[in-house]
Specification:
Elements lengths: L1 H9 L5 E2 H8 L3 H14 L2 E3 L13 E4 L5 E7 L3 E8 L4 E8 L6 H19 L6 E8 L2 E2 L5 E3 L11 H6 L6 E5 H12 L8 E6 L3 E7 L2 E2 L21 H6 L10 H13 L3 H25 L3 E5 L6 H12 L9 E3 L6 H18 L24
Parallel strand pairs: 4-7, 7-10, 11-14, 14-15
Antiparallel strand pairs: 1-3, 2-3, 4-5, 5-6, 8-9, 11-12, 12-13
Length: 382
């Protein structure tokens, strides 16, 4: 317990001395000194060089070694796979992007995931042994064991056991989570929803989905399907993209992933048909958001995904259609993380898992190796 308390006191703090640590933990200075020596030997801390110009015995300062381990976040989308490697303080050390085609089946998409992960590790200059947890964000309904129970947007994706597929290659836990859920986590950690407890995140682009935080905690539901309000035909999320696709000014053969950007650009230029398409899109989007607002009563609704890049065109009609459907107009804002929201949330989710293991009193801290710890998080999938 004392070892964990000392580690917690140093985690996320600037270099700290023994006296400050003793005050922070409520332990005696000699006890803290012994615990710090143990953590130094295990590789979780490092001692800072003595401060120059000090008189007498120099004060010993210690810091948590964020570089003692890393986490990997993956965002698996229709047209790309993003990967980010961060240290244990959440600082990004490596990034990668692999483009994919919406028609890719299971094998090609899994190959792109593996390639993106390898690229991110290479960019960070670390070995796989340093990775303490991996988190994969994906579209669809995801079970607690890491299987995609249902995916309507990625071919051959329903039924894929991502935790097992990816877990074979890592000596670390592999977490799998719905992309909208991860985006909601990211906004609370590093985006526009910091310090906000009840958040609805609406990810809208080629499809529309939702993630929710209630009381600051991710709300998945008993089977991982919380927020899948788009499955209800009575709300308009399933038909919203069709309004954009019906815009008569689209160039022939426009890829589906480019439709929204083309329509919003035309609407921005004043094209009446494009403005009407956006109006209808906003109407259908508002129906689902209103249903969520009336159910959850959130402090904040965050709009992300591809349409967030066109807030200047979308927000006015969306607000106009949304407000009359709610008992009280909700706070509505645009994501500040853009297309990095899901992969950022994946990093946060992986870090949370590492924290749980580090602070688990029943799991003793193991020594780290020079390349990074292979043991503290253990092996397995979840």
């Amino acid at each position: 317990m004392n070892l964990v308390a000392t580690l917690r006191a140093l985690r996320g703090s600037p270099p700290t001395g023994l006296t400050e640590l003793a005050a922070r933990t409520g332990l005696s200075r000699p006890t803290v000194e012994g615990l710090v020596d143990d953590l130094l030997e295990l590789g979780w801390l490092s001692e800072m060089p003595p401060e120059s110009g000090q008189m007498g015995r120099p004060r010993r300062l210690f810091r948590f070694r964020a570089e003692s381990g890393h986490v990997l976040g993956l965002d698996v989308g229709s047209t790309s796979v993003r990967a980010v490697v961060s240290d244990l303080e959440g600082e990004h050390k490596g990034r990668a992007l692999r483009r994919t085609d919406p028609s890719f089946g299971r094998a090609k998409r899994l190959a792109a995931m593996r390639a993106a992960a390898a690229d991110a590790l290479a960019d960070a200059g670390i070995s796989p042994a340093s990775v303490m947890a991996v988190c994969v964000g994906t579209t669809g309904v995801v079970t607690a064991s890491g299987t995609v129970r249902l995916s309507v947007s990625l071919p051959e994706w329903t039924g894929v056991d991502l935790a097992s597929e990816i877990g074979r290659e890592w000596d670390a836990p592999v977490l799998v989570e719905n992309d909208c859920n991860l985006a909601a986590l990211a906004e609370r950690w590093a985006g526009v929803a910091q310090q906000v407890d009840d958040v609805v995140f609406v990810l809208s682009g080629m499809r529309t989905g939702c993630g929710m935080l209630i009381g600051g905690r991710l709300h998945r539901g008993s089977r991982g399907a919380a927020g899948e309000i788009g499955a209800l035909p009575l709300v308009g999320w399933h038909r919203a993209p069709s309004h954009l696709a019906a815009f008569p000014g689209l160039p022939k053969g426009s890829p589906p992933e480019n439709v929204a950007e083309l329509v919003f650009s035309a609407a921005r230029s004043g094209d009446p048909a494009a403005r009407w398409s956006v109006e209808q899109f906003a109407h259908d989007l508002a129906e689902g958001i209103a249903a969520l607002v009336l159910s959850v009563d959130p402090d904040l609704v965050v709009l992300g995904g591809g349409v967030s890049r066109s807030a200047d065109v979308l927000m006015e009609p969306l607000r106009r259609h949304l407000d009359p459907l709610c008992l009280e107009p909700p706070r509505l804002t645009i994501s500040g993380l853009g297309d990095q929201a899901v992969v950022t949330g994946a990093v946060r989710h992986a870090l949370d898992h590492v924290d749980t293991r580090l602070y688990d009193l029943d799991t003793p801290l193991l020594a780290t190796e020079p390349a990074g710890p292979t043991g503290p998080a253990g092996k397995g999938t979840t």
